[in-house]
Design goal:
Structural class: alpha/beta
Distance between the termini: 84 Å
Largest sheet: 6 strands, mixed
Number of helices: 12
Oligomer: single chain
Length: 422
């Protein structure tokens, strides 16, 4: 029988990293909140550790992000580690690809309770509790940004380890990755009881026997990182049973909101409906939100949403005065996935200009891939703007031509239908 203990598993703090996909413009309360978001998220990690009286915090790489480990970021990080140390919590860290050993800066002294694993070999360190060894923690850091070696194969537990934990910043399942690639089988072969991984920003549990866990990042940084972000509270029983509890630490949440435009004929109606849903989001998340609005369906508003000016008008209307709110819900992007109300199948059967255009489209669409590319390039060569600016034609890839061709079916039908209606 072992000893009961618990720990927090977090990774990818990216302290001080600015948000992507966002152009706020005017100043407001969000500027300070966004600037402090990654730091506040780590504060929540330490808060959770103290509240749950854990024995350790495991940080599986990417504390900082390249050039953004400023002196103020280091001070903020050290301050939280000292706060954890005062609560009797030990810290175990490995470096990842964004904070490799050669780029690490430790100008600010860290408490003695912090252990950073080396980059030249896998090290084993005991986690002590009440004078007894509760677990053995193994880890290895990145020395440089890119590590192509399979570091997982260097982990091997010993019989006297008790509960064994492996810490690694890795890209599981990507053989050609430059981030310590490995397979699930490689991790299992080490005989660890728990793998505390980092690198992948979306939380996932790859295996429960043994536990192989990515906690995700502690704060979303872009539209690719929607939904709750945080860390895991891991409780290990005396007989080695593992219980995971996800704890949300993000202070600003990235979200998607999907709206079907079919029921709305005016932009103002859509704006009112979105505004109503936005108020519910604030109550649901209890924190500021940065939102991508995705419009789907078909109807009169398709024409508005298909233009940049129309999308900008809706975004500006939604965000008006939002910058003055502490609990803001800011729409950072509007993606138009709507469709025209035109029945393309029906229009193909009519003997008019639009029908002839669609039949010509079908003639090219039926060609095999290579002949289609050849025909599209011939058509492009005849366009006045490309005849005049030959360099533009050479810069057009086959993929760009195919993409433009697919979009031309609907856009061309819409333009010709409008001309006929006039």
């Amino acid at each position: 029988m072992g000893k009961h203990f618990s720990f927090i598993h977090c990774a990818d703090l990216h302290l001080g990293e600015p948000f992507s996909d966002i152009r706020m413009g005017s100043s407001g309360p969000w500027n300070e909140q966004i600037g402090k978001a990654t730091f506040k998220a780590f504060e929540k990690v330490v808060d959770a550790a103290l509240e749950n009286r854990v024995d350790a915090i495991l940080i599986s790489g990417d504390v900082y992000n390249g050039d953004h480990h400023s002196l103020s970021a280091q001070m903020a990080f050290a301050r939280e580690l000292y706060r954890a140390a005062q609560g009797g919590i030990r810290i175990f860290m490995v470096h990842g690809n964004h904070d490799p050993g050669e780029a690490w800066r430790a100008d600010i002294p860290l408490p003695e309770t912090v252990h950073i694993f080396p980059a030249d070999h896998v090290e084993a360190v005991p986690l002590m509790k009440d004078g007894e060894k509760a677990a053995t923690i193994y880890g290895i850091s990145y020395k440089t940004r890119h590590v192509k070696e399979n570091l997982a194969q260097e982990f091997h537990r010993e019989k006297e380890d008790g509960f064994a934990i492996g810490m690694l910043h890795t890209d599981v399942g990507s053989a050609d990755s430059p981030y310590a690639p490995c397979t699930t089988d490689d991790l299992k072969a080490s005989a660890m009881d728990y793998w505390a991984l980092g690198h992948v920003h979306t939380r996932k549990t790859i295996s429960t026997s043994p536990y192989i866990v990515y906690p995700g990042n502690t704060q979303g940084l872009s539209l690719r990182e929607t939904g709750p972000r945080g860390c895991y509270l891991v409780d290990v029983g005396a007989y080695g049973t593992v219980t995971l509890k996800f704890i949300e630490t993000d202070t600003i949440r990235w979200m998607d909101m999907t709206m079907d435009i079919s029921a709305y004929s005016q932009a103002e109606e859509l704006i009112q409906a979105v505004t109503k849903r936005r108020s519910g989001l604030k109550e649901l998340t209890g924190r500021p939100n940065i939102i991508r609005l995705i419009c789907t369906g078909s109807g009169p508003l398709h024409d508005v949403l298909s233009t940049e000016d129309g999308r900008d008008f809706i975004l500006q209307s939604l965000n008006d005065k939002e910058q003055f709110r502490y609990l803001f819900a800011w729409f950072v992007r509007l993606e138009d996935r709507t469709k025209s109300a035109i029945d393309l199948k029906e229009r193909r059967e009519l003997p008019d200009v639009t029908g002839n255009f669609l039949k010509a489209f079908d003639d090219i669409e039926r060609l095999d891939e290579e002949k289609k590319k050849e025909e599209l390039r011939k058509i492009a060569e005849q366009q006045p703007e490309l005849v005049r600016y030959r360099k533009l034609l050479h810069s057009l890839s086959d993929e760009s031509l195919l993409h433009a061709f697919q979009k031309a079916e609907l856009l061309g039908a819409e333009m010709l239908t409008k001309e006929e209606e006039k």
